[in-house]
Amino acid sequence: STDLTSTVGYDSIVQHLNDGRKNCKEFEDILKERAIIEEKYGKELINLSKKKPCGQTELNTLKRSLDVFKQQIDNVGQGHIQLAQTLREEAKKMEDFREKQKLHRKKIELIMEAIHKNRNLQYKKTMEVKQTCFCFLPYGALLYLFSLSHFWQLFLKLAQTKSALEDSDRSYQQSVITLEKIREEWQKEHIKACEFFETQECERINYFRNALWLHVNQLSQDCVQNDEKYEEIRKSLEMCSIEKDIDFFVNLRKTGSLAPAPVVYENYYNTERNATPVRSLVPVPISR
Question: What pLDDT does 31 receive?
Answer without folding.
Answer: 96
